Amino acid sequence: PSEKDFMGKNLYSYQGSWYYPSTLQAILNFQKHFRARDSDIILASFPKSGTTWLKALVFAVVHRNKYAPNLVSHPLLSDNPHNLVRFIELDLYVKNQRPDLEELPSPRLFATHMPFQTLHDSLRDSPCKVVYMCRNIKDVLVSRWHFRSNVVRKELYSNYSLEDMVDDFIKGVYSLGPFDDQVLRYWKESLVNSNPVLFMRYEEMIEKPEVQVMRLADFLGCSFTEEEKQSGTVEKILELCSFGNLSNLETNKTGTSVCGVAPHAFFRRGGVGDWKNHLTDEMARKLDEMVEKKLGGSGLKFE
Ligand code: A3P
User: Fold this and answer.
1) Protein residue whose Cα sits closest to atom 22 of ligand 1
2) Which family does it belong to (predicted)?
């Protein structure tokens, strides 16, 4: 793979995306050893698009018969969503581990930040379902900048300004980037009937959460019954997985780290449009221009 220097660290390009060596190694390990099951559910996203929220929601929806959303011993009340739905390339397959996933009951839930093309053939060609969470590029960028400056690789990012990140997003060279290529590819795949890819948007989840969670359940083949709708199951799941609830749980405030990150770091502010408090008009204009160039004509727009 080709190589680029990113703030003194090596980034490698593989199948159209950039990775630190440890992540690339995990991906190669996954591609070699993972065996998909038709019932698998894969949650895909670019970091900071609402992955934690999606993990919690899918876990709660899929397991609602086993764990009612108002159960006092619900796993989401005592464990972090990242432990309940683990990342393929940042957790399961790191350091040449070969996790035994055969024992896991169906449906198995996994998460990934990999682009569509990098999901293993056996997974891509199987009828297993992929849910993609998309968030507008400006909120993703601002969320990522806070996360990088305060949490992950913070020494590396100590002199890295928001403007630097805007420029890197425009160049497309950064870990797991380019964001726009990833979003566009999942968007296109979601339009092809033969591929079970559900394209969800963070902004729509904020705006009409009930509608979106029902859509999610329909896609996953576990639609809410009339009785469940009447008895408020959808609302209870949303409450359980809400920012306010999850971010205030002891397990997410002080719990042990997941993939080297303290769980509280996945909850910052939530919501739509925080970019307006951070990006200058010039930064926003540059991003709009790039998005227009990349996504124009695809039918995909950021709100
Ligand atoms: P902000 O930094 O804009 O607040 P990811 O889970 O992909 O790392 O994304 C993290 C972003 O999702 C953060 O955005 C975080 O606050 C927000 N988030 C986390 N849990 C959420 C929830 N339950 N509902 C809505 N947003 C949530």
Assistant:
1) 243
2) Belongs to the sulfotransferase 1 family.
